Each structure stands twice: as C-alpha cells, then as structure tokens.
Amino acid sequence: MSIILPTFLLLSAAGAFAQETAVEYSNRISITEDRLVAGFEEASLDGFHAESGLTLSMSDASPLNVRPTQGSSVLYVSPDEGIPADRWKTVSRSFETPEDFSSSPVAQFEIFTQQGPNRNQRCRMRLYSGDSYAEGTATIIPGLWRNVIFDFTGTKVVGKVDRIEISLMCDSQEEWNNGRDFMIDGLRFGKPMDLSFMIPGSEVVFSRSEGRVGWKNDALVYRFRKGAPLVSCDLSGSRNRTYSPPLGNSVADFYAQRNTFFVLMANRSRASRVRLEWTTDKAQGSKEFDIEPRSGMKAYYFNISDCPEAVGNLKSFSITPLDAARGKWVIDMIRFEREEPIIEYAGKVESCTADRDSVRICGSIRDEDLSAYSSILVYEYPLAKEGAPLQSLHLLSQCPAAPSFEIADIPNARLGGRMTHLSTRFLAVLKDQDGNTKPVDKPFYISNWRDFTENPYHFDLPDKDFSVLRYGARGDGFTDDTKAIQEAIDACSKAGGGRVVLPGDDSPQGRRYVATNIHLRSNVEFHIAENAVLWQSYDMRDYSYVPAFGHDFDIPGCPWTHCLFVNLPLIQANDVDHIKVTGPGVIRMADPWSSNPDWSHYAKGCSDRIHICALTAENCSYIELTDFDQIRTSNYHTSFYGDDHIFIGNVKMVEVRCVSGDGLSFAQGVNHVLASRVVFDSNDDAIVLCNSYRDPRGKNSPWRYDEDEVDHSVRNILVEHSYINSGKSGAGKAIAIIPWGSTNPDQCKQLLDSIEVYDCVLRGGHSVGTWCDNPFDGKPFTNAEQDDYAPVMNFRILGNEYQSACDLLCVKPTNFVTDCGLHSSTSFVNADFSLGYAYWTREGDAGAKNGYGFARGGGALLQGIYLTEGKHVIEAEVRGTGVLEARDALSGKCLARQGFCFESEDWTRLSITFETAAPADCLIGLGASEEASVRNCKLCE
Per-residue confidence at 613, pLDDT binned at 50, 70, 90? Predict the structure, then answer.
C-alpha cells in the first residue's frame, strides 16, 4: 500500500497564498510524545479569537448535554443567527513567536457539533506561516464528540507556524440558526502512534538495543543485529485505547478481549522463530512462534490464548528473533485480534445426525485421555449459557468412555415433545471419578438438518466453477481481493452462471479474503469453501469511497440513520435473480478494538469501526443462503428489500460486536421466505418483519431503495427449527413485529401477513414483541401511540420455547394464533372496509371495494378475532348468495353457519349465534358459492 503524501498547490488568485494539503487520519491513528497547545482551562480562552459573527466562551459542555473530553471546560462557539451554513465559521490563535511543530507534526483535537440543515458537515484546520498555509479537512458527524487528526508531515509551514485556525461549515445554503453552537477541546500536537505505519515517523513507537528502526513505503523497517528485540513504547495512552486492548478469552460483552497479535511482516532474514513478550497492567508473559525464513509479506497470527499471563490491558510488547543474529524485517501492520482460543480437546465428535425419533452422536477419544476419564456426557449447551458451569446445563445422555463411542438414546424431542433438537447446540465432555471434566470437541449441532425441511424455492445453476484465484485473488489476509472476486463473479454471470469459489486451506485461521463491497450477479452461486473466510477490510484506503466511521450517522429529518446506511454492504445484490451464498465458510466483519472515553452510550466501542451491513438484497428473486457462519457484525447482519422466494438454511449469526445487530431483516415487499435452522445470538431484533412506508433512510442510502407505489407488505414467511437469542447484552425481540406503514393511504399495501414460526427457541427482550409506533409519520417515536401502526394479520406462532415475555402493546392483530399468550383483537377491525381488505383473511376469490367485502366462486372473507368463553352473537349486513359463518381458527371446526339467499341487491342484516366452551381464536365472516358481499360486521355481547 502506498501512503498519500501532502501535495503542494499554488493558488492563482493574485498569488496571495501558497497552499499545502495535510492528510486526515481521524479514527485511524493515535499520537505520542504530544504537547498540549490548548486545553481551554484558562479564562483567556488559550489565546483563541473568533471571526465576526461568532462569540467565544468557556463552558463545562453541559448546555449540549455532554462533558469535556479532558479537564473541566471547553471552548464554546456561538454563531450569530442568520449566518450562512456553508460559510466557514472560524476560530484562531496567533503566536507572537512562531511555533516549530516539525518534530510533532500530527495535530489532534475534539469537536462537538449539532445537527445542521444538511447531512454534510466539515471541519477544517489550517496552519499558517506568513501568507502560506497548510490545511486539512474532515467530515464531521454531529451529536457526539469527534476526534479529528491531521498529519502535517512534510509541509513547509509546519516548522514555523504563526497562526492556527479551526473552522466548521455545512454544505447547505440555508442559514445556521436555532442555536447551533459547537465546541472544541484538547488541541495537541505529537508524533504518530500508528501500527499500520501509514505515516513517516510512525516508527517512533518502537526502539531497539542493536540495529536500526526506520520507515519506508508504508512499513516499519527493522534491521536487527545480535538478535536484539524490537520493543514498543508504552501504548496505554493511545487514543481510545486502540493499542491497549484487554487481553484474555472473555466474551462477556461487545468488547471481547483480544488473544492474538496479527503481524503483517516480510521476514528478510534466516530467522525461523520469534519470541513475543508482552506486559499488561496485571502481568507479563511470553510465547514463541514459528515464522517463515526469507519470505515476502505474510500475515502471522500470534495466538496467546493458551497463556495464563494474557490478562489485563496491554501496555507494551516486543518481538525477538531467536535463531538469526542479523537480518531485516519489514512490518506493514500490527493489530490485535480475537481468534479461536487454543483448547486441547480429548477427541473428536465425528457425526451428529437425527431422525424423527432420536439423535445419534458418534466420535472418538484419544488414548492418553481414556486412562484419566471414565464417562462421556452430552449436554444441551445453548449460546445464552456460553461459559456457564456444567451443572447448570441440561444433561441429555452419558456412556462409558471408549476409543470409539456412539450415543443413540437421546430422543429427538424437547419440552415434552413440543419441539425437536434441530435448534440445539450440544456439548460432549469427559468426566473422571472426582468430577473433573474435559471437552471432547467443540460444541456441535445436528448436521442433517436438510432431512427435516424442503426448499420450496429450489433452483439449479450450471455446473461450472470459477475460482477467484484464477482472477488474481490472494486470500492472504491482507491484500484487497475485492476487484479479483468481482471479476470472477462478473465472468461467471456472463458465461451463463455457475459457482464462484473462495477456496480454503488447512491453516488454523483459514484462508482469508479481504474485501470491501462485492456485487452479486444473476445465476451465480458465491461459495465460501470450508476453512475460507470473506473478511471485511479494516483499511480505509481499500474502500472505493470515503466510509463513515462509527455507529450512527446524522441526517436531518431521518431517524435511526446508522452508518451502515451510508456505507456500502460487504455483499450486495440489486435487481438480480437466482443467486446463492453458500458455505461452509465464514463471513467475518472488521473488529478493531477501541473504547471511546468521551462516549458514554452504547456505541463507545464503535468510533473507529467502519460499520457496513454484511449482506443485502434489493428487488431480487430466488435467493438461497445456506451453511455459512457470519461473525463479528457491528450492525445489521442482513437486509432484504422487495425480494421474493428466499431460502435460508443453517446460517449462524454470532459473536456480535455492537448494538443494532439485527438478524434476518425482511422489509418492504419481501415475500415467500423459508428460514430453517437459523442460529442467531445477538442483541437486537432477530426476525425483523417491517413494512415501512416512506422510510427516509432509503432515499439517503446509496444501496437502499424506497418506492411509494409498490406493495410494501411483508408476507408468506416461515421460520422453523431455529435458535433465536436477541438478548445478548441487549433487549431485542426474537420475533420483531414492526408495522411502520400507517401513513400509506392504501393499507392493503402495508400488511404484515401470513407469518408462521414453529419449533424455535425464542429469547430476548421479548420472545415476540413489537415496535409499533411509526417513526416516519412526522411525530417523535415513543412506541406508545395507540393507533400508529399498519395491519398485522394471519400469524401462527406455535410449538416454540418462549424464554422471554411476549407483548404486542397496543397492536390489535387479526387471525393471530399463538400458544404464548398473545391473541387476536377481541373485536372487529376495519369492519366497514374503509381500509380495503386489510385485517381480513382471504380464501380464494375474495377482497374488498367501495366500503364492503366480497367473496366469489367458493371463496371466503374472514376475520380472526379472540372470543372469551360463552355465548356470542355476530351481526353483519350481507347480500348475494352465501353463508355467514364462524370457525375455530386453529382446527377449522365450524362453530356456526347461517345460510341466506335473496334476488335483490338490497343489503340485509343477518346474525349468527354460537357458544365457545373456552376462550378461542375464531374466524368469522363470509363464504360464497357464487357471489356475496358483507359490511358493517359487529360483535354483539
């Protein structure tokens, strides 16, 4: 990778100023050996002055409901009302004696702005030397403290600065009104602390006792002698603790501890082994690793998860060549990752299969463990109990330990036969006579899940493979393979279709293909092979656009705009058909460590992440997603818009890294979906059923769409055999009913209709719940409005395990049958058909027009309502030839039927009377052998 060096430009306007460009490195580096230029703790404002139209003061930041980033006060800037938004609003400080920042050329400060009239706010910093200046600009997302970093290395002015300017503007011709004050804090200059070594001088982070440390072409160059170690400085003061992560194996929250040093290095020496040593605030440790002698650039994963000294926050580390006295290392990057912990297993689980009656587990045990352990035990080990003691788990079976074992006595039934084990994660352990245990293998699932489902949307593609390696992909864990992967996909589609393959390897970490944004094409299967990983790039320079960092983006008039809406997805499909993404490989999102002390809310670990959605499909037909894992997502796992005929099977979405980790998001026109044996362990809504209307995020996103005239109904969705936990460090809803279409004049285009969920574990803030208050109606979202939702109808949620509460708040659905305590409305909804056929179940030829419902040719028009025990009278106006009837919604048993026949077109009021022996969901309405109509239905108690 090549660094972007400052460029020098001469302005032609009367030759007034010579301009140079500084490079922005916000969210990507830190500084060290820094000096504070303005801490804004003095009444003198640290010598800063404002241009006309601005007023400066000192503040404790409380007027904008935050705290200073350091100390007790900030520089508070109040623009006058009526200033144009696109005018640079500038504060400056002059120096009587010019300052020399050439040895500390990286500037860093914090800025807090409020929402402007446009989404694009920019911050500018200028260093002046006489009439010459160097400037850098950065995009600012308002509403939170933003850390801004500019590198002035190599500029002519940096050694003789007589004035500093910091400015803010918004790309809008509107006025900057409504008290849009902003704040600045903590202006510092220092040397770069950059373990990606993008900046000349970033080698200052390391020292040596022998040899030389330098910088060249985006890399640290270490010429070692006498086997001397390369030693880092104290990293504990790095911005947002980026280079001082907690070490260990805990996954208790989003900020999972790190256990691996990712080192990208060319070893130009005979060294074949190194020692990694580290110091934390709690311990010191070391471990030796093999490296490849005389090699080019290669990614090394120095995994220390098996070291008890890998605890506490990292302070410093060193790398020592062990078997070469002299040589050269070129280090391109050092990063801190979390990889699979190194665990010694006692054997191997070779298969886990099931039939309708039982589960069969086969495996083997190592000879060295047979003498120490006497029994094999198999437990249910749900993801919600990760790390829990064995005594808290449900024991399913046990048998004597043997070199080969088979367990076939586990019934394929849970909860008294209501559920199968298809959603179960199993754990096999050895146990000795003293109660000590050792895992046999990793947790596992039933493998033959396909025997219990049938893909109703199956399609075949041509039997042709296109390896991405043939198109230049490296799969080396650091090269950007986006272009090569895209060329393979395009060639496959152009050739009539087939399978694009990301090959795997036999390494512990898998073969990793770095990418940023891949477009699927029609008739292409994108196959991530076993032990292959599609890995989102960490490096901003790999992206074809300037990505937004952080969790939330601020767009005026657009609620809940996460950065994922303005950044492009990792895998993207638009207006294509017959596409597949298949495993058994892994889709892994970028997971940099940081913890922003200036952010006190949920996204404090996200300020330095590039949030993108892992997989999106818009206006696509026939989609298959099967047999892959999706890990480390910081926001939505998937997004489906306007798609149809979707099959999702054996997809696992785990190890979420931030809130808003929604799972399968079915929105705005998605229909005909089967999701089978999905495993979801996250913190936000899992199965998202959302029929938004005029969602402004669609109009502000480069990949999302929003069309007013299309049918936004989400319908015909089946979810089966799945484990769905939405409660991991969050309070999402396992089944999330989001009827945000109340403002559409045609409510028949805004239905949540025909949804079935069975044989699933449902867990979260709610097992079944709703966000019912439409946020796109121009009113604030409170989730408390009583009538601000679109129709919800024809649900069957039965035969599941509900581990959390179920609540529909104010939503009154129809034909909503469950065994979790939720029911249909207790009275008719849309009885006058003013909303068309919304809330009415149609069978055959049936519908609504002109304020009445109709059925023809054996069709029926029915509404599901919940009736208490006792006698019930239903009245309605009818005409034509047919029946007014009541059925049990679950069994279909007829409860009452009244025939009628007349020759005129006059409306006639009829009634039926029946009794229910217990509370029941009932279907009530009209059936017609020829043609009949109904209106003004009423339940008379």
Answer: very high
Q: Which two tokens stand for residue 821?
A: 């305590």
Sorted by sequence, the CB contacts under 8 Å of residue 87 that are 6+ apart come out as 169, 176
With beta carbons less than 8 A apart as the criterion, state whether 376 and 398 touch: yes
Contact (CB, 8 A) for 395 and 376: no
Taking the CA atoms of residue 668, residue 669, residue 672 and residue 675 in that order, the dihedral angle to the nearest 10 degrees is: -10
Q: Give me 373's structure tokens.
A: 């352990």
Nearest CA to 347 out of 446, 436, 429 is that of 429
State CA 61 to chain mean position distance. 32
Query: What DSSP assignment string belongs to 755-790?
Result: EEEES-EEESSEEEEE--S-TTSSS---S--SS---
CA dihedral sign, ordered 547, 552, 554, 560: positive
Instruction: Tell which residue, 100, 803, 839, has the closest CA to residue 423.
Output: 803
- Answer yes or no: are the C-beta atoms of 657 and 608 closer than 8 Å: no
- How many Å apart are CA 889 and CA 520, to the nearest integer? 42
Structure tokens at 801: 């395990």
What 3-state DSSP class applies to 205? helix
Cβ pair 739, 705 in contact under 8 A: no
Q: How far apart are CA 852 and CA 832, in angstroms?
A: 7
Strands 426-431 and 437-439, bridge-based pairing: antiparallel
Convert 872-888 into a string of H (helix), E (strand) and C (coil): EEEEEEEEEEEEEEEEE
Contact 84, 78 (CB under 8 A): no
Cβ-Cβ contacts under 8 Å for 845 (sequence gap 6 or more):
855, 856, 857, 858, 859
Euclidean distance between CA atoms 741 and 755, whole angstroms: 17
In Å, what is the CA distance from 192 to each residue of 36, 234, 741?
A: 15, 13, 50
Give strand pairing partners of 550.
610
Strands (E), 141-196: 146-151, 161-170, 175-176, 182-193
Q: Is the pLDDT of residue 632 over 60?
A: yes
Max CA distance (Å), the chain: 108
pLDDT in tens, 326-372: 999 999 999 999 999 999 999 999 999 999 999 999 999 999 999 99
- pLDDT tens digits for range 440-465: 999 999 999 999 999 999 999 999 99
Cα 367 to chain centroid distance, Å, stands at 43
State if pTM tops 0.85: yes
Is residue 722 within 8 A of residue 733, CB to CB? The reply is: no
pLDDT tier at 658 (50, 70, 90 boundaries)?
confident
β pairing state of 814-818 and 792-797: parallel
Backbone angles phi, psi at 673, to 5 degrees: -130, 135
Q: Is 780 exposed, middle or buried (0-12, 13-18, 19+ CB in 10 A)?
A: exposed
Q: Residue 701 is encoded by which pair of tokens?
A: 């996103």
In DSSP terms, 19 is beta-bridged to: 9, 133
How far is residue 680's CA from residue 636's CA, in Å, rounded to a whole number?
12
Q: What does the block give as tokens for 126?
A: 């200028």
Q: Which two tokens stand for residue 914?
A: 């029946």
What are 735-747's pLDDT values in tens digits?
A: 999 999 999 999 9
Let me know if 676 is exposed, middle or buried by CB neighbors in 10 A (0-12, 13-18, 19+): buried
Cβ 1 vs Cβ 216: under 8 Å: no
Phi-psi region of 583 (alpha: psi -120 to 50; beta: other; left: phi over 0): beta
Contact 589, 614 (CB under 8 A): yes
- For the beta carbon of residue 443, count every other beta carbon within 10 angstroms: 15
What does the pLDDT look like over 461-499, one tens digit per residue?
A: 999 999 999 999 999 999 999 999 999 999 999 999 999
Long-range CB contacts (< 8 A, 24+ apart) of 288-292? 288/322, 291/265, 291/267, 292/267
Considering only CA atoms, which of 144, 116, 165 is closest in space to residue 27?
144
